[in-house]
Amino acid sequence: EAPALPDDPTQILAPVPTEVALPAMEARAVSAWFGTHKVLERVSLSMPAGRVTALIGPSGCGKSTFLRILNRMHELIPSAALAGEVLLDGQDIYDPVRRVTDARRSIGMVFQKPNPFPAMSIQDNVTAGLSLTGVRIGTSERASLVEECLTRAGLWNEVKDRLPAPGGGLSGGQQQRLCIARSLAVRPKVLLMDEPCSALDPTSTRRVEETIQALAGEVTIVIVTHNMQQAARVSDQCAFFLAEQGVPGGIVEHGATAQMFGSPRDSRTEDYVNGRF
Ligand code: ADP
Ligand code: MG
Fold this sequence. Notes:
- Helices cover about 35% and strands about 25% of the residues.
- The chain contains ten helices and ten strands.
- It has helices at about 65-70, 100-105, 120-130, 140-150, 155-160, 170-185, 200-215, 230-235, 255-260, 265-275, and strands at about 25-35, 35-50, 50-55, 80-90, 90, 105-110, 190-195, 220-225, 235-240, 250-255.
- The strands form two sheets. It has a six-stranded mixed sheet, with helices on both faces. The chain has a four-stranded antiparallel sheet with strand order 2-1-4-5, with helices on one face.
- The chain is globular.
- Adenosine-5'-diphosphate binds near residues 34, 39, 60 and 77.
- InterPro entries: AAA+_ATPase, ABC_transporter-like_ATP-bd, ABC_transporter-like_CS, P-loop_NTPase, PstB-like.
- One of its GO terms (cellular component) is membrane.
- This is Phosphate ABC transporter ATP-binding protein.
C-alpha cells in the first residue's frame, strides 16, 4: 500500500514526511493568463516521483493549461503569460539558463487525439522524438529501443511483425499506445497525459490504463481525465480543479485518491466525483 500523501496542496512547502515519495514535479503558486483573461490562480501541486496524479474537474477549469505549463508549452501560445514556479527534481524548468529542450526531453506528453506521424513507419514513430530533442542513436541501439518502448507501452506483441508499416494504419487505441511508446523513447522522468482515453473505445481504454499502471513506479505520471472510474483505478492522488463563475481555475481539493473518492472534504468535490455537476 502506498503511504499517505499530503492532502493539503499548501503543505508542499512544508517538510515532506520521510515515507512520502519526493516530488519529481512541483508547481508553486502558478497563475496563468491568456491576454487579460486569468485562467489559473496560484495553483500549487506536488507530483511525487513514480506516482500517478490525476487532474479532474469540469471543462474549462484550466487542466490542459496547467499540463502545458508543466511542459513549457504554455509559452508557445501567443498572448499567454505565466507566474509562479515549476520545479523538476528541484530545478526550475523556466530558468532562462536551462534550454527548453532539456526540460522537454525529461517530460513526455500524450494528447487526447492520438497523433502519430501517419505516413511514418511504426518503428520510426517510436524514435521520432529523439532527433527532435537532438539525441543521436546507432542502428542496433535503435532496434532495441523500439522493442523496449513498444513493450513498455503494451504494443510490442501486436506490431512486432509489421514495424515498417505506417503508424496511421493502426487502430485508434494502438495509435495512442504508439504515442506513449514515442514519448518513452526519450526516457522521460515525467509523462503528462491529457485525456488520453477520451477518443478510445473501452477495450483500448483498458489497454492504456494497463500501460499506465505498468509505468507507474518508473515514471511520474500526470493524467487529466473526465472518467472518475479511471481516476480511481490508475491514480495515487487526485487534484480537483474548478473555475467558478468569474473566478480563475484553481485546485479546490487535493489528496490521496481513496480519500478524494471515499471522504472528500469539500462538498463541491463530493458532488463532482459522484457525478452531480
Ligand atoms: P480544461 O482543460 O480544464 O478544459 P483549458 O485549460 O483548456 O481547460 O482552458 C482553461 C481556460 O483557458 C478556458 O477558459 C479556455 O477558454 C481558455 N483557453 C485555453 N486555451 C486558450 C488559448 N489558446 N487562448 C485563449 N484562451 C484559452
Ligand atoms: Mg482540457
